[in-house]
Write the structure tokens for this entry.
Amino acid sequence: MFIKNTWYVCAWDHEVPHEGMFARTITGIPVLLYRDSTGAIVALEDRCCHRGAPLSVGRREGDCVRCLYHGLKFDSSGQCVEAPAQDRIPPQARVRKFPVVERHRWVWIWMGDPGRADPALVPDTQWLDHPDWRSQDGYIHYDVNYLLICDNLLDFSHLPFVHPGTLGGSADYAAARPQVERIEGGVRITRWAIDTEAPAFAKAVKTWPGKVDRWNIYNFTIPAVLLMDSGMAPTGTGAREGTRVDAAEFRGCQAITPETANSTHYFFAHPHNFAIDQPEVTASIHQAVVTAFDEDRDIITAQQRSLALGPDFKMVPFAMDAALSQFRWVVQQRLQQEAAEEALQAAQAGAQPVHIVRPAPQTT
Amino acid sequence: MFIKNTWYVCAWDHEVPHEGMFARTITGIPVLLYRDSTGAIVALEDRCCHRGAPLSVGRREGDCVRCLYHGLKFDSSGQCVEAPAQDRIPPQARVRKFPVVERHRWVWIWMGDPGRADPALVPDTQWLDHPDWRSQDGYIHYDVNYLLICDNLLDFSHLPFVHPGTLGGSADYAAARPQVERIEGGVRITRWAIDTEAPAFAKAVKTWPGKVDRWNIYNFTIPAVLLMDSGMAPTGTGAREGTRVDAAEFRGCQAITPETANSTHYFFAHPHNFAIDQPEVTASIHQAVVTAFDEDRDIITAQQRSLALGPDFKMVPFAMDAALSQFRWVVQQRLQQEAAEEALQAAQAGAQPVHIVRPAPQTT
Amino acid sequence: MFIKNTWYVCAWDHEVPHEGMFARTITGIPVLLYRDSTGAIVALEDRCCHRGAPLSVGRREGDCVRCLYHGLKFDSSGQCVEAPAQDRIPPQARVRKFPVVERHRWVWIWMGDPGRADPALVPDTQWLDHPDWRSQDGYIHYDVNYLLICDNLLDFSHLPFVHPGTLGGSADYAAARPQVERIEGGVRITRWAIDTEAPAFAKAVKTWPGKVDRWNIYNFTIPAVLLMDSGMAPTGTGAREGTRVDAAEFRGCQAITPETANSTHYFFAHPHNFAIDQPEVTASIHQAVVTAFDEDRDIITAQQRSLALGPDFKMVPFAMDAALSQFRWVVQQRLQQEAAEEALQAAQAGAQPVHIVRPAPQTT
């Protein structure tokens, strides 16, 4: 149901404690997160291999975790190292350990084959802790499938309609047709609105003499990560040609992580590189984004209820769906590829014992 | 699951606004209701054809509605007439429009084939706005399948047991066997209790010297509409023979409309033709009916819970089930007829391409 | 899904009223309980045979019950004896009557074949009302399948981990390997911890000079009844060899009764035979047990949520699972046996009509 071999954001770095533990379900699997004595993050399946109790209601013992149902103790590799009334612990008594990368304030987790978890594949979110940029940490929870949120983010023509008082701007913003390109693992979207009204959230923290040129240029890649260069500059100053004079620039970072088939984690921040010594500016931008994302959640949750009533409902495609259609196709391709790989592995695993067990037929 | 080609009550007239919009789910389909500039009621599917967002959280623009997700605009025929960044709108970009009839305070909707929506088929509820009759508007919501409510209304022997303090009267009322006749699309029930106690709700607004003759004569027809002549007159004054002297007469109008498989809308009023210049009499009657219908809801909801626990539970039929059994049979017949018609249409639709594609067999 | 031919605890005796009625769902079947004029408990299916309304929202009429939907009256054998507007009541108009035994404060019910309901099979819980013992009545409700609670009670190695402040004692208690024996319909578990710390709940009501020998010896039998001899005595005084000097002795009685597939009734008491004239001692012991059982419910409910997330989760067995594995096997055997008996009865019932209806083949 979910792509496995990819990096998912599972937490803000400050959510994972040095003492104690933190639990969050990622792609339907309960995950336990904590920091060992070196500060490194440990991610284990949050389900004791014995009877399934969550380890997160257990107890830290140094770098280990003890399940507080029957007292099994697991080290940070997930291996059970102690069981009451039992000297020898079978090696299969272990919980899954998930590869984790902590980088630029986000904690990324790999729910698939650990052997393929290449840290070099983690997307670059340097603006989250770059000294020239400022932002606040955002998180909201959704009770919908994550793809409905992806759809939303892949078509910014909704901005003037869903977010008139925050991110929206005027209706001509929706009328501007964005450029959509396929990139590795996703799509790149470039939308320019020339000589347009600045959106309310930007006007609240910056003044321009008149209208602006506005851009939203972002990559949206698997599993569901949006990294955006956006902003506004006075119209006619050549922003589209690459000159950014008196501009308000943002580097939005958003990660949509499935919790279950019907619920989703949404991590976000909206770094800006102006007025970075004015915390009230950062707070104002953040609050506008939070308000807007709550507006998104309202309409998407209503959409979800409406779709649930009509399982046979057929969506009519529009031109504005170019990016979301391409991204959904990329997701589908990746899921099919993983399914094919798993089928191949299962066939190979099944074939081998047969080969070992059966003696070669004697023909003479 | 539900009969399609029939008129369902979907609202009281005052619920549908001139400005703004009103949303209600009918037979599992979300419906948007509003009045155009002529005051005529428009009923559209409340689910944008694009991505399924409810139009009812959108915006009226004259006689049109704009979806406030991506800004699509629909006219009152359901046709999409505007989409951001798109000049040509495909004709299939439309939402369903449902035939509607507004008559005698109720708004009726046709969820099936619009070509068969004959306004002449709307039942007559003239007492809801007749100058000689008075009533208040009633609505309650149920979390049960609508047929359990039909069952309840098709057997008034429950009155002394469920409604002893309001509609009930004495136990002899239940003991009187009603006459049940098949009529077009339903049943007609005639129940007389002679020389009986008047029910509490009637005693509260009218006094008689002694006992009364009481009648409940009603048609219960598809989809689930109850239209009743009921009342009480002093016993021995010949009410059963057609003379109504010193009578309290009522013309109950009730419509049970499925919301989903497990929830139901219930519209009702209980017009009376005496003391019509005394609003407190109308209020007293209405309140008694509301109290009684809440009693019905309590027992039917308990029944629903009990039935849900035992999906294999077999009901034992009793003599008092004559009317409800006949009505359930009528519903079943109508559903089978509609299923057969749809199968025939599908076969004809499917047969045509075959006829076109395949060359005629050559016999020589 | 549940064993049928066995005695389930369905209530504490004081829960079943002389006037009025009491309703509780047992193994998915709604049950109505009341006392007739002799004080004997009547247990009927709490679902009117007519339209399924719960009789428990009806009315007692002497030893009978009247359904307050359509007024059907049932006697204490479950037979319908009165129906409005109907002289002859068909004999099949009846609700199930369940065999009941009231003994030592508990009410036991038999949900299977009444002909096999032998009162001699009711387990002995004499300590619940024996003059030499004292306890308070306990009941808690669980939203989990009953077998997860059985698992919990079949492995007391969880005591130091789940109940450190009440029943727990020190970790060496978990390290002591219990003896597990198969007995008729279940298992017998004997766990001794020698020279150990007394648990907090016992220290709160009794003092010993030093460490104690502690025992928990209990039968856990179908359907899910735990009867336990437990206690502590000063270490070295020979408790294990049968001498009980200065001991705190308890006779825990616990019954786990499925309500539905996902919810459970838990009846319990923890009788003690010392300080029986001090109600505060009884109250202290009871409160400790209630606190501990709430701790169990917390961890088991968390376990249930965790298991629900992963339907394919495979438990890794540990040595401590010996008793629970054996009990689960006993349950499985009994369910298979009942299924086989039912299949046989169905085949026999089915074979007869065939024999009657079909003429013998004519061979000439």
The interface with chain B takes residues 151, 155, 157-158, 160-162, 171, 174-177, 298-299, 302-303, 305-307, 309-310, 313, 315-316, 318-321 of chain A (CB under 8 Å). The CA atoms of residues 124 and 184 of chain A lie 15 Å apart.
